[in-house]
Amino acid sequence: MSRYQPIEPALIDWDNGIPRCQKHGDIYFSTDGGIAETEYVFLQGNQLPQRWFKQSQFSIAETGFGTGLNFLCSLAHWLKTTPNTATLNYISVEKHPLNKTDLQRAITSWPELAEVGAELLEHYPPLVHGLHQRRLFNGRVSLTLLFGDASAMFADIDATVDAWYLDGFAPSTNPGMWTPELFKQIARLSKPSGSFATFTAAGIVRRGLKAAGFEVKTQPGFGRKRDMSVGQLINPPQRQKNQPWFEYPATKTKTKQAIVIGAGLAGCTVSHTLAEQGWQVTLIERHPKIAQEASGNHAGVVMPRLTADMSAAGRFYLSAFLHTTHWLNQLKKRDPTLPWFQSGVLQLCNERQQQRMQKLKLPEDILEICNTETASQRCGIQTKRGGLFFPSGGWLEPPALCRWLLDDQDENITKLLNQSALTLKREDGEWQVVGDTGLIAQAETVIIANGYDAERLLGIDSFSLKKVRGQLAYIGSTSQSQNLKTPVCYDGYIIPSHKNMHCVGASYDINDDDTKLRPESEQQVLSMLTEELAEFDSSEPRSGRVAFRTSTRDHLPVIGPTPDLAFYKNNYADLHHGKPARHYPSAEYLPNLFLSFGHGSRGLISCPMAAELITSTLNNEQAPLTTDVINSVYPARFVIRQMRQQP
User: Fold this and answer.
1) What is the mean pLDDT of residues 625-641?
2) How far apart are CA 611 and CA 592, in angstroms?
3) How far from 508 is each of 263, 297, 518, 572, 595, CA to CA, in Å?
4) What is residue 31's predicted lDDT score, i.e. its pLDDT?
5) 168 pLDDT exceeds 80?
């Protein structure tokens, strides 16, 4: 299982335009012609593009992303030879990725790949350990980059790979990658009869692949190399049950039609993402307008919630943050009027917290440790202490984003407003959503994204949701307060002036149903502000707002398929005895019923990731998160924990 490790970027020497890795002393592509080598070794070695003509979805996985040459060559051929309905899933691992400057320099070596190279540079992720998924060419191509050790990263994903490019530096210079564990993972992730091709014919590679279940053949190599290896999987490994209660089978749908219940940020993001991927969505909302609950706040902060140990929770929020900021930037390119402002975000904290975060060694474009002077410079006004600065964070107007998302896919999203979903039942292979006047809508697939009301609609209470009252204050901006350039977070937060107001938040009142503005809550919010930023001592509130967030016991959202609780209780009730996982059956779920709620105060970054995770599951595509991170937000986690703790 992968664990967070700071990424060390590749150190490159340039030799007559050819990049050479300082660590391994090996070149990234052949001096005899990099493109020709890729086409001969990897495409022809895997009988591509002939094979992908026969499939609407094709998956390629690679060891050693390097300069991206194999990806770019494959992509160029794939775009030329496949219909617009085809999709490509490309997975690649890299322990020491190139920084963007070196990557750009390498790509200029291949003018014929300029178009696909520009698309890669546009979507190339920051150098942070973990899984980074990007959609290219209007969603037709899914690029999943795994930054970290190859064996560990592949061990923590699920995939069905058609063809493997076994690249990376030669076994003689990089023996640490070509290991029996890597070959086992390659076999585990391969489809039956999945193929591989590699430039090397080294004995350690051929023997390792044979031991993992591959038939291995030697054929003439490229250029000055005498031999290379190709083959296919002939003895697929028996699937190991590690955590069968978290396994989810391939989704089966007759139609790409879905109902989404709840038109806040969770519902709007999943509706938009599904619609972009060819789904027809019916969005049901009990209010007469969208984004009326917590998603209706005047402004909200986009920043991660890091943990010092980079637990699954910390990695979830970091992955969600990186995904969401990239996604928002792409939307902003399409429509510059979108109210998303990538100003950076300052989080004030003490020196001990700063030191703990510094050990993560995140790139400076993701996290900067600031003393008091630097913190003041970053936000534009005087602070009383230093903190953490997230340069790629920012703030946005949630209601405007929700409206934009629905308008953008207006032809594919039907809005049913002022309709309360009271009951949900399954009839003849479809879910029926019933309101006080009868049937509202029915479809094969439903996503419940209505926050605290989800448990009532589901008729279960296994999620132990908490309803958290939050009161905001809106204060008028002044000539001095206009100097605030970034959101500043502490026990509360303040956001730069927007429409001549600052949004200041927020109280945190658990299981408090009071919808009215309270003077004591307002005073609490303003006191937290002035304690940190003396600039606002004389600020008077203009108005305020009360909204309710939905939180869970572990402060992580609930994202994914709905467990069949009767099956879980019948089959996993004795988990506390510690029996091996192989003795348990794979989990069962309520058919095509998915959940996205419990996002709490981090919904601005977790909702878009939840939308991607649900959409990828429904489309049987590569997941945007590693398996352990997915399990940390999986709806079944609460019932499994309960069964493990039973006496």
Assistant:
1) 95
2) 15
3) 23, 15, 13, 36, 24
4) 60
5) no
Phi first, then psi: what are they for 182, rounded to 5°? -65, -45
How far is C-alpha 29 from the geometric centre of its chain's CA atoms?
31
CB 77 within 8 A of CB 112: no
Residue 148 main-chain phi, psi, to 5 deg: 155, -175
DSSP, res 168: S
Please tell me the predicted confidence (pLDDT) of residue 18. Answer: 79
pLDDT at 539: 76
User: Rounded mean pLDDT of the chain?
Assistant: 93
How far is Cα 82 from Cα 69, in angstroms, rounded to an integer?
Answer: 20
SS3 string of 488-500? EECCCEECCCECC
Strands, E assignment, 344-492: 345-348, 368-370, 387-390, 394-396, 413-416, 423-427, 430-435, 438-443, 445-448, 466-476, 488-489
- From residue 288, alpha-carbon distances to 248, 285, 420, 451, 453 in Å are 36, 7, 10, 17, 17
Strands (E), 265-408: 280-284, 300-302, 340-341, 345-348, 368-370, 387-390, 394-396
Cα separation of 61 and 164, whole Å?
5
Please, what are the domains in the chain?
12-239 (3.40.50.150)
- 300, 398 in Cβ contact below 8 A? yes
Cβ pair 197, 62 in contact under 8 A: no
Q: With a cut of 90, say whether residue 117 has pLDDT above it.
A: yes
Establish whether the linkage from the previous residue to 49 is cis, with ω within 30° of 0.
Answer: yes
Cα–Cα distance between 327 and 140 in angstroms, integer?
16
Q: Do 432 and 426 contact (CB within 8 A), yes or no?
A: yes
Residue appearing with tokens 């917590």: 294
539 is written with which tokens?
A: 């600020």
